[in-house]
Amino acid sequence: MILQALCAYYDALARRGEVTQPGWSLAKVSFALDLDEGGTLQGVIPLKYLPEGGKKEIPQLLQVPEQVKKTSGVAANFLCESSAYFLGIDGKGKPQRSKQCFEASKELHLRLLGAVDSPAARAVCAYFDSWQPEQAAEHPVLAPYLEEILKDANLIFSLGGQYVQDDPAVRAAWDAARTASSAGTGAGRCLVTGLQAPIARLHPAIKGVRDAQPSGASLVSFNAPAFESYGHEQADSTGQGLNSPVSEEAAFKYGAALNRLIADRRHLQYVGDTAVTYWAEDAEPVCQDLFNWALCGTPSETVTDTDLQNAVLALSRGDPVDVSGIPLHPENRFYVLGLAPNAGRLSVRFFLQSTFGQMLANVQAHYDRLNIVRPAYVTNGALPIWKLLGETVNPNSRDKKPSPPMAGAVMRAVLTNGPYPASLLEQTMLRIRAEQNVTYGRAAILKAFFLKKQEFKVPEEVLHMELNDQSSHLPYVLGRLFAVLERVQTAANPNLNATIKDKYFNSAAATPATIFPLLTKLSQSHLQKLEGGLRVYFERLIGDLEGRIHETLPARMSLADQGTFQLGYYHQVQKFYEKKDKGGTENV
């Protein structure tokens, strides 16, 4: 299903004129070697540019002949390569290998272009016939750019300022060579299209996934006899062959589509170690903008946040909308793919598909569950997925990434409207215990988790957005009582460096029978320091909460009860800071 969805996406992009044809791909190119008709190097044309809002120049993305899958051996690409293949030198201190790379590139270009009647083809052939790698480092034209060129920068050829790969005769020669190479490939029934076609021996390299191989990693790959089955042997020691029969055309399409998705940094998100990419079946980029904003809070470059919010709400209800004049339909199919690095391959963390409207409705339901009263200093209450997962991470650790398995499971739960993983609760409560701090984000996680996980038997009366002062659920009442006792202490001793929260919060949540008698005794001393109405207010509040306790305090509370305790504490603290009126008067 993944490959079929990617091939369909490629076809949709092709109908929009936004992708390369089979046999061609996009590559990041830093320099063009400008030749004259005799093949002499006349200059170096820098192709890097400074993107809008960027601080560093980046290579241009140009259409070049499809590139081979690099291994540890020597394999030359046609018309787009590094300095080792085009100049015979590199910055790795391996002159013998550089010479082999140059000879391999020379053989390839002379073989494909030797009979082509074109000034561009003749210039490239003449260049390879005359170029002397041993003199490359001293060439005056290269000197100003040599340091950058040797850093594995991609190079192309140009003639009179025109890229050689754009020459019609050269393009025809490449397409003919590619067709001829496919003629000798074994045919079979493609698993993606269901048609008889030449089977791809090597699948395309997927580039740009963080922490994966920089040269590209495989999505489909077999490299050991253990993977052979039903007599389908590998094509060679590095190939996939017939063990997973995918036609060359389908392999090209899914590779081109996936590489395009990953290269689109505006619509690529990382959740832990997982690269999350997503697309609509009709290839409409506004759908990606909407999903990006809904899930991750990333603004669109062309659509305002208000329009995005209105569109998300309408689509999640099943209503079609127009965004910037583009009609969007809730029944449009939508796909989300999560890829994680795994040695030389890519691991599929998850692949989800549904209608666009249903996917957005699931995300909206997730945000509804997270909705909880927030402190006044939290101006933006949205908890996009990256921020939510950040609540489970130690802020003082060097690695700020959440647990990869948990992050993937949370993403799946959000997009399918399924139950959250137990690890989300465990990691959130671990951070609360470590820091004695129930933040807005962590309280929202607790509320959402218990609303979805009914088997924890947390009553919905304590899972409201704001404080439920009528609830008598014991863990919730104890959390509220702890917040009140802490408030009494700080009111009586305003300059304290450490409060009862710093000393007793975790033990009060875990073993209330041991801690609360001590806290109640301490509160009497604190109350005696208060005067007038403030003392009466707290005495009444403590009396009301203690009056709601109709059972013996438990010696130990379960994980769910501890989470409910923390929610009660959070709700009560926020109640103290609730403004009574528009004038800004606060509760005590």
Shape: elongated
Contiguous low-pLDDT stretches (5 residues minimum) are 235-240, 581-586
Per DSSP, the total helix count is 19
State the distance separating the first and last CA atoms.
59 Å
Strand content: 5-15%
Order of strands, widest sheet? 3-2-5-6
Which structural class should the secondary elements be placed in? alpha+beta
Over all CA atoms, what is the radius of gyration? 32 Å
Q: Tell me the helix content.
A: 40-55%
Major sheet summary line: 4 strands, mixed
Number of strands: 16
Mean pLDDT score: 89
Provide a short characterization of the protein structure.
The protein is of the alpha+beta class. Among the domains are: 12-182, no CATH class; 184-262, no CATH class; 472-588, no CATH class. The chain is 43% helix and 13% strand.
Spell out the blueprint of helices and strands.
Blueprint: H1 2-15, E1 24-29, E2 31-35, E3 41-46, E4 60-65, H2 83-86, H3 95-113, H4 119-130, H5 146-149, E5 155-159, E6 162-163, H6 168-183, E7 187-189, E8 196-198, E9 205-206, E10 217-218, H7 248-263, E11 268-271, E12 274-280, H8 285-296, H9 305-316, E13 321-323, E14 326-328, E15 333-342, E16 345-355, H10 356-370, H11 385-390, H12 404-416, H13 422-435, H14 440-452, H15 474-492, H16 500-510, H17 512-528, H18 532-547, H19 559-576
Give an overview of the whole structure.
- By secondary structure, this protein is of the alpha+beta class.
- Among the domains are: 171 residues, no CATH class; 79 residues, no CATH class; 117 residues, no CATH class.
- Helices cover 43% and strands 13% of the residues.
- It contains 19 helices and 16 strands.
- The strands form six sheets. A four-stranded mixed sheet has the order 3-2-5-6. A four-stranded antiparallel sheet has the order 11-12-15-16, with helices on both faces. Strands 1-4 form a two-stranded antiparallel ribbon.
- Strand 15 and strand 16 form a beta hairpin.
- Helix 15 packs parallel to helix 17.
- The longest helix has 19 residues.
- The protein is elongated and about 100 Å long.
